[in-house]
Amino acid sequence: MIRTASALAAAMLAVVSPTVAAAETGKPVSIVLVHGAFVDGSGWQAVYDLLSADGYEVLVVQNPTVTLAGDVAATERVIAMAKHPVVLVGHSYGGAVITEAGDNPKVKSLAYIAAFAPAAGESILSLAEQPVPPGESKAPLLPPKDGYLITDPAKFPAAFAAEVDPKVTRFMAAAQVPWGLEAVQTKITRVAWKTKPTHFMVTTQDHMIPPSAQRGMAKRAGAKTVEISSSHAVMLAHPQDVAAFIRTADVP
């Protein structure tokens, strides 16, 4: 069932606090946040603050974004550090990372946010090459250079985070982390969403990953899905809604 983000946030106000719930069930949870391409883990700060204030242990992965295997390994190291069973959260390319790393038995559930959720044998490249319907657009990437991709800096603010302060997004455009072609082209071999409870937040104003593609991947994964009117960087534009969404992944 698809719910709006505002309805989700309102519903979460009626849920007992995670700290109390953990004490009552005896099953405390850690949340591991995995960022996507072109950025680093600092984009999660507002969401981190909200969830930490709720009493969750929140850990943030810093992916090199050079190879998929390297990013999966970085995520697995953080999962190993977690004190409790893990809700594993991936944004954008981070969805491919959690699809592999989520196979870890310590991971209890997955949360995809404006993300790729590949199947076995798929890569980010194969998903990105699929046609999009009228009215949607693909990420404005520049041609590869020296084995890496970046988003066109002039188009980055509108494509990545249209609702965010332009001063912030202009800096993000200038400070992009190049995305390795090996990460883009490597095919998925382990598919955690086939066996783990899965949640998906679709960003309906996304110009990096088309909303129709997000919906298709969410449906294929059998995910509990929420939609929000947001650009790609929803954790920057709507951190309260994102935190509320992640909390639902801690509910059986």
From TrEMBL:
SUPFAM superfamilies: alpha/beta-Hydrolases. Keywords: Signal. This is AB hydrolase-1 domain-containing protein. Residues 1-22 form the signal peptide. Residues 31-244 form the AB hydrolase-1 domain. It comes from Sphingomonas sanxanigenens DSM 19645 = NX02. It comes from the Bacteria.
